[in-house]
Specification:
two-stranded antiparallel sheet, 2 domains, cell membrane, mainly alpha, single chain, transmembrane, 21 helices, PTS_IIC_cello
Length: 446
């Protein structure tokens, strides 16, 4: 029996080791890492967009009326034009820069410029615009539509940024394609000429693809990506089933010491951000809000106080635990936990490799997501229309992100309370296990 138990344990550890290795490899894949880095840089832009949307549709509406209101709202509209409406244009060069830097390329700013150039090469040559009456459509050339440069073109910007940069780095590494002007030429000029031929080949490739799509299929790459890749992928990943599966796996990885953003950051963040931007645009134009699962939805109901909503565990410890060591860790973790930083609890209490606490930590995102999703679907709380910083404390976040819906605050309180009682029995078991292990370590016969 002992040998069987040892064998089973070895197989279990072998599985965990292999699963961990694969997860780390995927999470550290340079393309996914560059994608996360790029979105981290431009995230403040979308938070500012949320601020403009919130002011335009709440504060300004309370303070102004009629023609004065329309003039003042130019403020928020201008912010939308510089943020949400150019989201695809922002993300492409930033991905180019981050991917080039992460690959060790010596001229990442050139890669950034090439990504942006290739994105505009792939834009449609003609666009349809509505007339002044809002009904008659006119096809025009020589212009850009916010539909292509903004949120709907965001995934196109991601793919073009990744592909164009990868090709450019490959071409720039071929010595025969580099133009060397000698040592007496300023470095900036020398670098520009060294990538001239690779840039020419790269843009010619993308221009040829654009010409073939337009000539043979009367189509363009940006809209093809949106229709064939972005929307189907977003449809599954931001469905309640896909969302719960991804966050269940992400939090399970975290219990093994691998940060949940390895999975959720790569598979979810770009897509829920697209949903968030669509909601903000719809709210700004007084249209129907299209999406339930957004970036702010995650902050409000899924990651309250950080991954696994460990702020509920902190509350459970402070209210019900008599173990001094655990209470000390909870007290130290409370302040960062209020701002959704919970690594002190995850690694200090700890939750990682702590079997009893792994269970509620993995289950909680699913419970919070289901409660938030169906409460929103049934109209009990408003949909999220403002992107707030992820460090926004609980209770404040749901109120701001729903443009002042107090019901969202009540829902978050209920989710937190359920979390307390979900964590409580497992916390007690964890304390008993720790006490038993301490006794065994003290007993020389154990």
């Amino acid at each position: 029996m002992a040998s069987e138990s040892t064998s089973e344990k070895l197989e279990h550890n072998s599985f965990l080791d292999k699963f961990t290795k694969v997860s780390v490899t995927v999470g550290n894949w340079v393309y996914l890492r560059s994608l996360r880095d790029a979105f981290a840089v431009i995230l403040p832009v979308f938070i500012i967009a949320g601020l403009g949307t919130l002011l335009n549709n709440t504060v300004f509406v309370w303070l102004f009326k009629g023609a004065t209101l329309a003039k003042v709202q130019v403020f928020g509209n201008a912010i939308s034009n510089g943020t949400l409406n150019v989201a695809g244009v922002l993300v492409a060069p930033m991905i180019g820069f981050m991917l080039a830097r992460n690959k060790g390329f010596n001229n990442p700013i050139a890669a950034s410029a090439m990504s942006l150039a290739c994105l505009f090469i792939m834009m449609p040559g003609s666009i349809s615009l509505a007339g002044m009456n809002g009904k008659t459509m006119h096809t025009v050339t020589g212009g850009m539509s916010y539909l292509n440069t903004g949120t709907q073109g965001m995934f196109g910007g991601i793919i073009v940024g990744l592909v164009a940069t990868a090709i450019f780095i490959k071409l720039a590494g071929i010595k025969k394609l580099q133009i060397n002007l000698g040592e007496n030429v300023p470095p900036a000029v020398s670098q520009s000429f060294s990538v001239l031929i690779p840039a020419l080949i790269l843009m010619s490739i993308f221009a040829l693809i654009a010409a073939l799509l337009a000539g043979l299929f009367n189509a363009d790459l940006i809209n093809l990506i949106k229709d064939w890749i972005q929307e189907p992928l977003r449809g599954f990943n931001t469905s309640i089933v896909g969302f719960c599966v991804i966050y269940f796996c992400a939090n399970f990885l975290f219990t093994l010491g691998i940060h949940q953003t390895v999975i959720s950051g790569s598979l979810m963040d770009p897509l829920v951000l697209i949903n968030m931007n669509q909601n903000m645009l719809a709210y700004a134009h007084h249209a129907q809000i299209p999406n339930i699962i957004t970036t702010s939805f995650v902050s409000n109901y899924v990651l309250v106080g950080g991954s696994g909503s460990t702020i509920s565990l902190i509350i459970a410890i402070l209210l019900f635990s008599k173990v001094k060591a655990g209470r000390d860790v909870a007290k130290l973790s409370l302040a960062p936990g209020i701002f959704n930083i919970n690594e002190p609890m995850i690694f200090g209490y700890p939750i990682v490799f702590n079997l009893p606490l792994m269970i509620p930590f993995v289950l909680f995102p699913v419970i919070g997501a289901l409660m938030g999703y169906y409460a929103t679907l049934l109209g009990w709380v408003s949909r999220t229309v403002v992107l707030v910083p992820w460090t926004t404390p609980p209770l404040i976040g749901p109120y701001l992100s729903t443009a002042g819906d107090w019901r969202a605050v009540i829902l978050q309180v209920i989710i937190l309370a359920i979390g307390v009682f979900l964590y409580l029995p497992f916390m007690k078991i964890s304390e008993r296990v720790a006490a038993k292990q301490a006794e065994m370590n003290l007993d020389p016969k154990a």
